[in-house]
């Protein structure tokens, strides 16, 4: 795996790093944009040089399933944004999550996590890891004392997600990362909802940070990808699993992700502001039972969010009075929205957990995770705020149960 090389200072702003990191290093023929190196394999004139790269004694590329110049440029951009020593990318967010856990764990190990996880992550930890002899303990997300107790009782990996998907709960990352390190466990944080613009878990002590790059990093709803970054030794172990299992990121997907990342800070700051205003607007509506957004002062963990986040993100969720019937009616009457299972894009997206984050879960499993069936997950795009507010107003009126 080629070593990281920072050609942009770490104290530069997020947009400068997003735009400039790795561009000169990986450009060719005077191009101002990193090219798509669409090649399965890379040739060598002599066997000795080839062998040194194969043995990782020298930097270089052999086979795109392992790594690729375009892919590596994307990884170095994320490293610069998260302050990581190294990174490895994947074909999807779930590929990043599963490869991280399988690459770092073995039979007899124990993972401690929380109920409020992305549905695919929850099912992988609770249903698939036990098949390989890995013990999984799932804690009540809001019972911080219980979480810390379970960590201290013994864990090899502590897996956290904050804000959580889709109920936007906030976890005290510093507290549980410190608890993990006290017993020698690895702290892994899914930072997809927050993005590096709003939160940097490595700065709070995390060993590994994961992103579904499909979401805010790409930002345009046209590409799939995932990435894990963090300590070089751990990333090397995850990379080794990836190069054997094969869930590699395609060079063209890496190119699209880098294109999206260049506007990441601009998009996220706009989405932060829009989501905050919409959350406050919905909090005053009689059709709404409750709003879930860490930027609201009424959020039970607003104080913790303020401590560990710079912004509160572009995703909120809310429970509609009248349950799933009213929530469905609201979603169906929204005009400026894509009804689709994605988030973090330039277009506003909305859906129920049963069709988005927890589509793989049963109603009972969603209930156990504290997810109301009448919950709407609303991912703010970059449309004009006034248009989105007008759209929500007319949809809420049509959604009323009379």
Describe this structure in words.
This protein has 402 residues and is α/β, with parallel strands linked by helices. The protein has 2 domains: 14-261, Type I PLP-dependent aspartate aminotransferase-like (Major domain) (Aspartate Aminotransferase, domain 2), CATH 3.40.640; 264-399, Alpha-Beta Complex (Aspartate Aminotransferase, domain 1), CATH 3.90.1150. 40% of the residues lie in helices and 14% in strands. It is built from 16 helices and 12 strands. A 7-stranded mixed β-sheet has the order 1-7-6-5-4-2-3, with helices on both faces. It has a 5-stranded mixed β-sheet with strand order 8-9-12-11-10. The N and C termini lie far apart (62 Å).
Distance between the termini: 62 Å
Estimate percent helicity. 40-55%
Total helices: the number is 16
According to DSSP, the number of beta strands is 12
Structural class computed from helices and strand pairing: alpha/beta
Low-confidence stretches: 3-7
Q: How much is the radius of gyration in Å? A: 21 Å
Q: What order do the strands of the largest sheet run in, or round the barrel if closed?
A: 1-7-6-5-4-2-3
Mean pLDDT: 94
List key phrases describing it.
disordered N terminus, alpha/beta, single chain, Aspartate Aminotransferase, domain 1, 402 residues, 12 strands, 2 domains
């Amino acid at each position: 795996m080629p070593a990281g090389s920072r050609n942009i200072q770490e104290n530069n702003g997020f947009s400068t790093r997003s735009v400039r990191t790795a561009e000169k290093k990986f450009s060719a023929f005077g191009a101002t944009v990193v090219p798509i190196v669409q090649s399965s394999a890379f040739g060598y004139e002599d066997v000795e040089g080839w062998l040194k790269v194969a043995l990782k004694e020298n930097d270089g590329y052999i086979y795109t399933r392992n790594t690729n110049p375009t892919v590596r440029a994307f990884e170095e951009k994320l490293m610069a944004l998260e302050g990581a020593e190294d990174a490895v990318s994947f074909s999807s967010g779930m590929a990043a999550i599963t490869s991280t856990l399988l690459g770092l764990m073995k039979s007899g190990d124990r993972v401690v996590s929380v109920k409020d996880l992305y549905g695919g992550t929850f099912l992988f930890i609770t249903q698939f890891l036990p098949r390989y002899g890995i013990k999984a303990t799932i804690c009540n997300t809001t019972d911080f004392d219980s979480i810390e107790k379970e960590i201290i009782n013994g864990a090899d990996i502590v897996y956290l997600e904050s804000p959580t998907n889709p109920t936007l709960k906030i976890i005290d990352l510093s507290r549980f990362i410190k608890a993990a390190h006290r017993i020698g466990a690895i702290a892994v944080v899914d930072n997809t909802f927050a993005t590096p613009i709003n939160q940097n878990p490595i700065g709070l002590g995390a060993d590994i940070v994961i992103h579904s790059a499909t979401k805010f990093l790409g930002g345009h709803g046209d590409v799939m990808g995932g990435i894990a970054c963090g300590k070089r030794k751990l990333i090397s172990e995850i990379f080794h699993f990836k190069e054997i299992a094969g869930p590699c990121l395609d060079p063209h997907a890496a190119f699209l992700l880098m294109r999206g990342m260049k506007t990441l800070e601009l998009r996220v700051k706009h989405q932060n502001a829009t989501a905050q205003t919409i959350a406050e607007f919905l909090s005053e509506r009689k059709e709404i039972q409750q709003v879930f957004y860490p930027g609201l002062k009424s959020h039970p963990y607003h104080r913790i969010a303020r401590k560990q986040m710079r912004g509160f993100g572009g995703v909120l969720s809310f429970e509609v009075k009248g349950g799933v019937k009213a929530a469905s009616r609201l979603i169906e009457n929204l005009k400026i929205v894509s009804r689709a299972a994605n988030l973090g894009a330039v277009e506003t997206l909305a859906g129920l957990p049963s069709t988005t984050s927890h589509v793989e879960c049963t109603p009972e499993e969603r209930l156990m995770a504290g997810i109301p069936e009448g919950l709407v997950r609303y991912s703010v795009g970059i449309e004009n705020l006034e248009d989105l507010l007008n759209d929500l107003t007319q949809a809420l009126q049509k959604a009323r149960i009379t």
